[in-house]
Amino acid sequence: MRDANFLIENNARHMWHPMAHPAEMQAMPPKVITAGAGVHVTDVEGQKTLDAVGGLWNVNLGYSCQPVKDAIRDQLSDLPYYSAFRGTSTGPAIELSYELREWFEPDGLTRAFFTSGGSDSVETALRLARQYHKIRGDRDRTKFLSLKKGYHGTHFGGASVNGNANFRRNYEPMLAGCFQIPCPHIYRNPFGESDPAKLAQLCAAALEDEVAFQGADTIAAFIMEPVLGAGGVIPPHESFMPLVREICDRHGILLIADEVITAFGRTGAWTGSRLWGVKPDLMCTAKAITNGYYPFGAVMIAEKVVETFENNDDAFGNIGHGYTYSAHPVGAAAALATLAETKRLNVAENAGARGDELLAGCKGLMDKHQIVGDVRGKGLMICLELVADRATKSAAAKSVMGDVFEKTYGAGVMVRVSSNNVILSPPLVITSDDVATIVAGLDHGLSAAG
Predict the structure, then answer these.
(1) C-alpha span between 270 and 81 (Å, rounded)
(2) Fold (topology level) of 68-345
(3) In what helix (H) or strand (E) does residue 203 lie, and over which residues does it extend?
(4) How far is the C-alpha of 245 from the C-alpha of 253, rounded, in Å?
């Protein structure tokens, strides 16, 4: 790699960054990360920072997970690539499908369709849901329902079921037949309801109303994150997902759990669906499946969907969908090693314990800093929502959010700023000392806002 001066000079000059304005990136160049070890990253200036973002929700095991690195190296030597399209397969993909069946057995999921990442997994689940109904002869079931504030990736299907205008407005019109209902967000909801259980009932009633309005026989699937992530870390009441499951069952609608973030332990349970005691029909996974070291994902499929496809004997059962890098042998090898380490370290238990500490620490910051309007989270998914005024809940200014980010980074902690939210999603292997460092860094950063 070229020297630091080259990297600094050319930063954001020839590359457009995801989820950013190109002009803004040129005016205020992003941090250049050049190394990672444990739960820390180092930038081009040599500053070492505790990564409270966990890469992008995905580096659950930190940056020094040697078994995963070794698995990637060894597989590159043995077989760096081969296609999984009809007629060929590879050893790592076969082995991984077996391991994932065992891993997701408590969720009732028995088959895997491999993808290149989270957006691909969502796209795959949406397409399989429509196909499932076509095989069964329910060919009017093409619509999708989802939650406002939900995030489901950036492909046109995923963006169309997204519940955040920031990911839709510049690309409209979106896919037809996608409709959103209110999400059970205590801090901001259209019902003015502050009781979590009552809010869950109200949102479930809104779902029932939308199903009746659209016509149950036109709806293919409802897709939701068990804990909403990019929309601001919104944990629903424990009754909400079971209510959704019951409504979907009653109306013949598939339930897709988007667990690109929540699978593999981040909530304190091995899956977000398991956290709420729900078995989905399809589950989207990616991110932590390879600890972020290789682009990879998997859609896990429940037995009732499996039986519909595998018992079909006409062209409607043929899967005309896939990616060049589906079941990539290097990604599969990385996933196998990641699963083994994830299980050995029991990171779900640590995520629950450290998450409780981090949530308590952030609530302490809310008591100290008036700019913090709300603190919420589950496991190692935490959000501090910053406001200009607590009474009106008006969002903190963009410039203030920038100052908070820079001051927190200067104190040695990397956080993620999205709109007026500060989002924390550190590796699941952090310690209590790391939690204290994160809270202290945020305390310093929030002081920038007064």
Answers:
(1) 30
(2) Aspartate Aminotransferase; domain 2 (3.40.640)
(3) helix 196-214
(4) 9
Residue 87 pLDDT > 70, yes or no?
yes
450 band by pLDDT with thresholds 50, 70 and 90: low
CA distance 102 to 139: 33
Per-residue DSSP letter, 423? E
pLDDT tops 90 at residue 449: no
Peptide bond connecting 173 to the previous residue in cis, omega within 30 degrees of 0:
yes
Domain boundaries, the chain: 31-64+346-449, 68-345
What are the strands, taking DSSP E only, across 13-152? 33-37, 40-43, 48-51, 109-115, 143-147
CA 239 – CA 244 distance, rounded (Å): 9
Cα-to-chain-centroid distance, residue 78: 32
Type of residue at 170 = N
Distance CA 43, CA 63 (A): 14
CB-based contact 164:240 (threshold 8 Å): no
Cβ pair 254, 222 in contact under 8 A: yes
Judge contact between 266 and 288, C-beta under 8 A.
yes
Give the Å distances, CA to CA, from 287 to 11, 21, 297.
26, 24, 7
User: At CA 360, angle to CA 357 and CA 366, rounded to 5?
Assistant: 145
State which fold the 31-64+346-449 domain adopts: Aspartate Aminotransferase, domain 1 (3.90.1150)
Structural contact between residues 251 and 216, judged by C-beta atoms closer than 8 angstroms: yes
Q: What is the pLDDT of residues 296-312, one digit of tens each?
A: 999 999 999 999 999 99
In contact, 43 and 49? CB cutoff 8 Å: yes
Task: Tell me the pLDDT tens digit for each residue of 352-393.
Answer: 999 999 999 999 999 999 999 999 999 999 999 999 999 999
* Mean pLDDT confidence for 85-103: 97
Angle at 169 between CA 167 and CA 171, to 5 degrees: 80
Helices 329-345/347-368 angle, 10° precision: 70
Q: Are 360 and 352 in contact (CB under 8 A)?
A: no
Rg of the chain in Å (alpha carbons): 22
Distance between CA atoms of residues 261 and 343, nearest Å: 17
CA–CA distance, 210 with 62 (Å, rounded to integer): 42
Helices (H), 79-138: 91-103, 118-135
